[in-house]
NAD(P)-dependent oxidoreductase
Amino acid sequence: MTPPQPIQPPAEVAFIGLGVMGAAMAANLARAGFRLTLSSRSRAKAAALEAAGAAWSDTPAGAARGPACVALCLPDTADVEAVLFGPDGVADTVERGAIVIDFSTIAAAPTAGFAARLARERGAFLLDSPVSGGPGGARDGTLTCMIGGDAGAFAAAEPVLRAVGTKLTHLGPAGAGQVCKSANQLLVAATLQAVSEALALGRKAGLDPEAMRQALTGGSARSFVLENHAKRIIEGVTAPGFRAELMRKDMRLALAATRDHGVFAPATAMAAQMLEALVNTGRGGLDASALGGLVAELSGLEAARPE
């Protein structure tokens, strides 16, 4: 297929999936000057963007008819497949040469299959571009985008990607972005488990947790998780930034990826098991850092509570 021309504002972009991340990303596309057509399971989530001038479509097929770029931000692999290839799906109408950017975090192998099918059936490109940076990064347009797919399509879609992210890395063919995102999530979850254990150790030994966190952030153990998630654990803040049930889903993907590639991954397995336990104890709707409270309880301590 011939790589398309760069997609610059005021080109039309269809955006499908307006959860916390998707709505913020769509708003940044509008601010960058792209014309938006929106579709989501709940039209109420599109109200603010519609008021600002975005168009609405009741179906993914309707949204995908015409735009040179279609963006997806959906919960899981089955949702992406349904939106692409289900009844009234994107594949019914997407233009030849158009680029579909999937910002969802899903399984890598199906992603490669979706890309091949979209190219075969419609002559369209699929880039997998899972993101890291959370709701704050989505709101501020500072996400990290881990991208797999055709290099020419990546170059053409870069103006769209720049509207939502500041660090863009093209990693290889379709599915490569999803593998990298699984690596990201296993690093975060395994570090969160280690931080939870370290804080419990300090408390059991009589150390002040915040003083301990300050000491550790000054040395080689310093990390985003220690700086941010540990603070939430110490203060007992469990209101979700990134829900535990979503981290569990991502760890299931990471565990599957390590199995698919024959990787010896005990840290991934342990972190995945602990996320399962966290959700199974009724805390799936809390922030993933609630893992610290579970580790504390299993260590004979009470979980911290906000003052």
Notes: The chain has a mean pLDDT of 96.
